[in-house]
Amino acid sequence: xxxxxxPLILGLLVVVASGCTRNAPDTATAERRxxxxxxxxxxxxxxxxxGPTVFAPAHRIxxxxxxxxxxxxxxxxxxxxxxxxxxxCLESLPLGPDTVASRPGNGRLSVEGSVPRKFWDxxxxxxxxxxxxxxxxxxxxxxxxxNSGFFGFAFTSTLPPLDGEGxxxxxxxxxxxxxxxxxxxxLPISFGTDDFLAVGLALHPVGLPFATGPVTFQVFALTDHGxxxxxxxxxxxxxxxxxxxxxxxxxxxxxxxxxxxxxxTKVDARADEVSRGFPLWGSPEIFQRTPRxxxxxxxxxxxxxxxxxxxxxxxxxxxVTPRLAELATRGAVFEQAIAxxxxxxxxxxxxxxxxxxxxxxxxxxNDVLGSTIxxxxxxxxADGYQTGAVTENAMLLAETGFAFGFDSYFENKGLGIxxxxxxxxxxxxxxxxxxxxxxxxxxxxxxxxxxVHTPYExxxxxxxxxxxxxxxxxxxxxxxxxxxxxxxGEVRYSDVALAAFLRDLDEAGLLDESIVVLTSDHGEEFxxxxxxxxxxxxxxxxxxxxxxxxAPGLVHPGVRVSSMVSLVDVVPTVLDLLxxxxxxxxxxxxxxxxxxxxxLPAHEPRFAEGPDTSRPGxxxxxxxxxxxxxxxxxxxxxxxxxxxxxxxPNEQENLDDDTLREIGRRHLESYAGLAAGxxxxxxxxxxxxxxxxxxxxxx
Length: 699
Ligand SMILES: [Zn+2]
Description:
699 residues, alpha+beta, Jelly Rolls, Hypothetical Protein Tm1070, Chain: A, Alkaline Phosphatase, subunit A, 3 domains, six-stranded antiparallel β-sheet, 35 strands, 17% helix, binds zinc ion
């Protein structure tokens, strides 16, 4: 059965997606998303309803240019691993298909080719990417700027260290080199009291080796009174920090006027040089003071790989999350929350969209979210929220849809590719810094950490056991018992870090102004069904996850909800709590009644998918009600496994029951009816491929 249409169906779809297309980002024209992100109706002026006020992004300049960005120019690019919508991101084109080249003995490769007509009239930066074996990701070789596109180009590129021994695979990409003098002009803006412009200044990393001199960034106001300079700053590539430089420009002097903003960059150069600067304006936004109203802040935290039964219980000789359990007495705990996939990308996309994997179609790191599906960040951005994310890379790739709607999307890549230690401390520290910068605004912050993912290497003081007695009594292999304890140690350590983060929110007064969701994307199995890890089955040890929600004043403190719920219910629930009309066709339902202490209505089944390890490349579908689970190979509606979860919560006895089989068949058919098209794919770069290999997702 499909989840019932929400009662709030009369709400309008906030994110307007008419006529938009979202292509694979690695194609030339793909990186634009033509959406109306700011709904001006959502931004009310201060003073219209009294009460506390916040700053809200009322104008996102990247989407409000006159003229708009040209078709091929991306709206978003990364500096120091932080993606932002930006002015100045470089248009790029792949130059033909991948080719094979002989591996040079001296590490220097002759590169030649021709350039598409579109780029003939301007200088181009040609970047070769190479790999030495099929399973490796592509790495950047040294680039070159060429001016004679009409006649083709040829240069010698220095190769990075490469795997393998034989021939190389070669990709070529051309970037348009921006002119030395550039202007972007906004659409007309009505300025109010207290308005300010927030913007980050940077230089595009691809072009940085070719930057010739300091870039002068200037902002001008164009009003009936003429042109007025508001801001000037110079960045010298020789001493730039390499990170976004955030600036706040007060606009109070313009209150009551209507005008445009002009963003101008000029590159200095010595007389004998061409001027090149590659300047970027990151997330230029105008903030206006607005009544807070019912729109609280939202903070969603994902502790990747956190088992549902590793919350508020004793594991390996003691309480595993005592601090979070204590804090949970102020919020709500869902005791039976189900993920939609035992792997990171698919399940997080359900958390972001309120849709099952069969509809959002993002099951692996290189699947790209379809153009017509709004994400939670996009919905909230459209409703006047500042949006930020700190993730730990790899499976939540910015370019595949996870960054859509975020004003800042930071990939915390850590010290080394092969180091898969979770980084909860640095991720939460980055989250705290983001909050300090934005706590006067209406915001949505998403945080994601692999801290409890393999390898299980918590600080020594968080490792307890196993004792010799436990090892002697274990019915499973001893190494599995040891793994269980080390995993529990990671959860204990995360309990300390997350509880400290939540207490800091409380002390800063942010908990009372926010809704906080703490959950996970999947669990972890320890030989319950002869496997360890995840992404290998759809049993409850990998599908059940903790789900905690704090929203003081909106949530009945200490409520425990025993009804089965799913990650697809999170989007409708938070939109309901924030009084934001949901998009049509969400597949979850709001859990607000349960948060208020009432019982949930009769339950629809919830669905999950997962890889079928007995048929490589194929998948299983799981249907779960509170009492039963059915498992079937994808593409069939005949369950091959049926479990009575009341009598057999560990899913050990496969039932042979015609009545249950028929019920399962109907559920499976309803899930198959939600199918969307084939997902778009994008290539993974070398660093991402290696990180995924380190995490165990690719061979
Ligand atoms: Zn995960």
